[in-house]
Amino acid sequence: MTSPPPSSVPKKAGVVLYDGHCGVCSHWAMSAMKILSRHGFQVVSVDEPWVAQKLSQSPDELRAEIRLVTTDGRLISGADVYLHIARKIWWAWPIYAIFSLPGLNRLFHAGYRWFARNRYGVSHACKLQPR
Predict the structure, then answer these.
(1) Residue 89, domain extent
(2) Residue 117, domain member (yes or no)
(3) pLDDT tens sequence across 55-80
(4) Cα(92)–Cα(69) distance, integer angstroms
(5) Coil, strand or helix at 24
(6) Total domains in the fold of the chain
(7) What contacts 47, CB < 8 A, 6 or more positions away?
(8) Assigned domain for 58 exists
(9) 75 is a domain residue
């Protein structure tokens, strides 16, 4: 099932773009979709035809890390997506506050970069197939 472009979808918070080729990423997206949609986020694979066209990036560039297109058109990438989302959800706000502290912020970003580079291996080791 394809998702319509964000301009035709009512949203309050933005569109989260995940790597649909990654087992861990697609399992996370499907698990988090209900919570995220309740808070105004749409969750879409970067493989949707309109994504590469709208963002003027190749699918390989888009798959490099999680992305968020905000309602005002900003593109947020990587670990900052998780921080942005945590800041918008009242019960996740403490995660945002803790991982915004200078030392923990660097650690959070480094951990995210390690995972992003190794996610296909993690998916394979965990036998998680893309959904």
Answers:
(1) 6-125
(2) yes
(3) 888 878 889 999 999 988 899 999 99
(4) 20
(5) helix
(6) 1
(7) 20, 21, 59
(8) yes
(9) yes
Q: Give the separation between CA 16 and CA 118, rounded to whole angstroms.
A: 20
pLDDT tens-digit series, residues 16-67? 999 998 998 998 999 999 999 999 999 999 989 888 888 888 878 889 999 9
Between CA 34 and CA 40 the distance in angstroms is: 10
CB atoms within 10 A of CB 1: 3
User: Per-residue pLDDT tens for 91-112?
Assistant: 999 999 999 999 999 999 999 9
How long, in residues, is the chain? Answer: 131
Cα–Cα distance, 90 to 7 (Å, whole number): 26
Contact (CB, 8 A) for 79 and 109:
yes
Report how far Cα 28 is from the mean position of its chain's Cα atoms: 9
Rounded distance between C-alpha atoms, residue 123 and residue 1, angstroms? 23
Q: Quick one: pLDDT at residue 76?
A: 95
What per-residue string of b and e applies to 117-128 under the rule 16 or more CB within 10 Å gives b? eebeeebeeeeb
> Does 1 fall in a domain?
no
Question: Hey, which residues does 41 pair with through a beta bridge?
Answer: 14
